[in-house]
Structure formats: C-alpha cells, structure tokens
Amino acid sequence: MTTLAVLGAGAKAVAVAAKASVVREMGINPPDVIAVERTGVAANWYAIGGWTDGAHRLGTGPEKDVGFPYRSALVPRRNAELDERMTCYSWQAYLIATGQFADWIDRGRPAPTHRQWGQYLCWVAERIDMEVAHGEVDRIAVDGRRWALHTRDNTIHADALMVTGPGQAERTLLPGNPRVLSIAQFWHRAAQHDRINAERVAMIGGGETAAAMLNELRGHPVSTITVISPQVTLFTRGESYFENSLFSDPTHWTALTLQERRDAIARTDRGVFSSSVQDVLMADDRIRHLRGRVAHAVGRDGQIRLTLSTNRGSEDFETVHGFDLVIDGSGLDALWFTSLFSQDALDLLELGLGGPLGSDRLQEAIGYDLAVEGVAPKLFLPNLAGLNQGPGFPNLSCLGLLSDRVLGAELSPTDTAGGDPARPALRRDDEHQSIR
Question: Are 172 and 182 in contact (CB under 8 A)?
Fold first, then answer.
C-alpha cells in the first residue's frame, strides 16, 4: 500500500481520511492516510490551537462538511454509492448521533461555534479510526523516493505528503514586546476572559483572521481601533449564489484567465470581511481604517510606533503612527512549512518549479490533483491551490471534492526505467479521477 502523510489533523486531513475509509469499505484499496499532529484532531478550532477562542461562529455553513459537495468522480459507476456512504459522516449525521438535530433545526440552523465544529471533526475522526501520529514535525526531508517527517521521537515515512493548516499563530512584528500581541496571544487572553484595556489599538490585517479578532475586540474597553491593511477600504466578501458557486464547483475555473482568477479571489476571499461581521462593525464608531503596509515597528515612550508605506501613483509614501497596543492579525504565511524542509527537500522543490521558491511561482505550479507539478514524491498543497484550481480548496468550501482530487492522484513516484508507476493505485482520466 502507498502511504499519504498529512501535516496537521484538521478538516482537510479528516475529509481525506474519511473518504479513504469509505473507499476501503467499498472493496477498493486507497492509500493509507496518517496525520501527523502536534496537539490533537481539529486543534485549530479550539483555544489551544491559537487561532480562536472556540466561542466564535463558523463563517462557512456547516452543511459544507467533510463530504460536500457530494458529487464524487472517484469510483466509476459507483460514485452515487460513495456519496451515499459519505453522508454517514455529514454534519446532520453528527447532530442526529449526538441528539442535537431537532434542537438545531428548531433554532433556525445556526452556525456552530468553532468549538462545536471541532467536536464534529473529532467525531468523524473517531468513527473512522483515523490514524494520528502525535508529535511536532521539526524537519521534513526526502529519503530516497519517499518523504520523511521527523519529530523528536519518531520518523514517519510516506509516499506522498499533504500540508494543511495556516502554520503557527505565535509570530508578531516585535517578539517579546508586551504591547504587540500575536494571534495566539490575543485569543489566549480572550479565552481567559482577560479584557484588553487600552486607548489606541491597531489591528494589522484586512482578512477574516483580523475580522474575527475585531468582532471579539468590540466587547473590550478600548477607545479607538484602527484597522491597518493595504486595501483602499475594508471590503465585504461577496456571498451571493454566484460567488458561492465558484467555491463549490470549480468546473469552469481553469477557463478563466489568470487575472480574472486573481480578481475573483480578491473580491470573494482575500483581504475581505464576511457580510455578517461587516454589519456588526459598521455600528461601532470606534473602528476606523488606515491604508498601508507596515514597513517598520519600534517600541518607544510606552508606545508602538508603526511606519506605514502607502503607494500613491508611482511613489511610495511613509507615515508614522503611534498606538498603545498592536495586534498582529496579518494572518498566515503561505510558505510557513518550507522552514521545516531540509536542504534536499528545498532543492527538490526548486528543481520541480524550475526556479527559486516563491509564493506566486508555487501557486501557479499546483496541478489538478492539488500537488506541485514536476515534484516527486508528491507534495499536495491545497492551501495554495486556489489560484490554479479553484478558491474553495484552501478553505472548507469543497472538502469532498478536495479528497477526490488527492485520493485520485498517482501517489507513487514514476519508475524512470520503465516509465510506469511503481504503485499504480490511482490514475487520472480525461475529466475526472478514477481508482484502479
């Protein structure tokens, strides 16, 4: 059997493991899926993960669960059966199994809290007996034709690797300065009901990470909250049927030009607030927006002074602003995982990319199966697949389709002598993936 290692035991790992479990029940051999996780299943949906206090509401509808959109193209002539079997792990199935379904319906199908969503993912993982190797990965190397994930106590070898999650939430502009909070520090205080009391607060970031923290910060005794982002204003995410369908069904996504795709992502996903959060923020006159990118930060005279760079036409202007407290909500680093790569793994990646490693170059190299083209053993990067394959893959919008793409890939490296896969478990057909 081939083995797929997943870095992180979040929603994407659970979705792929659940689909593999169902396919195995149908008498077909999928790859073994093993998640390598430092904390626990769905940790980032709890306060312990550093990205939330667990009490805020899920922005995506919970019906977009591990099987959504239930339109599999993985097992020829048996895809309807596959989808039906996957409904056993749906959000509704979880509510029924835990005696919560009628209450959820009677309350108008409210969005679950992050903690409740994490409980759902843990329920799925437990039902499928998901394999989790506990430990923090400190190095990822290439061992012959396989990946080697090294933790302090163990080494996990795999024929393919999928990287998930936003990385760590502890980074800040000024590490160690008590007047600059990381995302993790902010949510830790929120979870402990430690109120932030300050006159002038700056929130760096214009995306959903910053929006969730702003929503929490509204209930704290602060005088002014300045949101700093490079956009000209705080945009609202498009949430009509037409925008949402781009996330659920990327069939025509690749027919768009690269610029059209970038425009669509900018309008619906990157650096935008959900309409529900915007409605709440509009009513709070303490919140204002300041355009610019943080070029420099320094602690001085009991303040944090931020130097902002703003492009105006053909020139960049710099201005300095002082704050009593700064919250660094700029969000994830798209290439956070590369710091774990050994030099041979970095060389392999750059060789496959045909040039130096960079976010744009990497995004444009993501293929149909959500893996980096030209790299063997396979490296799946769904969080970077939005530009090339569809905006739903980096988030929760099409987990069932994501698992199809990954499990439908040819995981084993190609035998260069014979030209045939060393383990031809999965093969790409013309318009969809099929398991052999």
Answer: yes
Comparing CA positions, the residue from 162, 158, 156, 289 lying closest to residue 214 is 289
Three-state secondary-structure class, residue 189:
helix
> How many structural domains does the chain have?
2
Please report the pLDDT score of residue 281 as a whole number. 77
Which range marks the domain in which residue 307 is found?
A: 180-237+274-328
- Provide the CATH number for the domain around residue 207: 3.50.50.60
Residues with Cβ within 8 Å of residue 374, at least 6 apart in sequence: 351, 352, 353, 354, 365
For the CA atoms of 254, 259, 260, 266, what is the dihedral angle to 10 degrees?
Answer: 110
* Regions in the chain scoring below 70 on pLDDT: 1, 238, 271, 313, 331, 411-436
Q: Say yes or no: 123 and 51 in one domain.
A: yes
Output the pLDDT for position 10.
97
Cis peptide bond prior to 175, omega within 30° of 0: no
pLDDT at 419: 35
| Residues 354, 321 share a domain | no
Phi, then psi, of 239 in degrees rounded to 5: -135, 30
CA pair distance 225, 401, nearest whole angstrom = 39
What pTM was computed for the model? 0.90
User: What pLDDT, on a 0 to 100 scale, did the predictor assign at position 417?
Assistant: 33
Residues 163 and 219 in one domain: no
Contact status, residue 382 vs residue 162, Cβ threshold 8 Å: yes
The crossing angle, in degrees rounded to 10, of helices 208-217 and 183-191 is 30
Question: Which structure tokens are listed for 331?
Answer: 């969000």
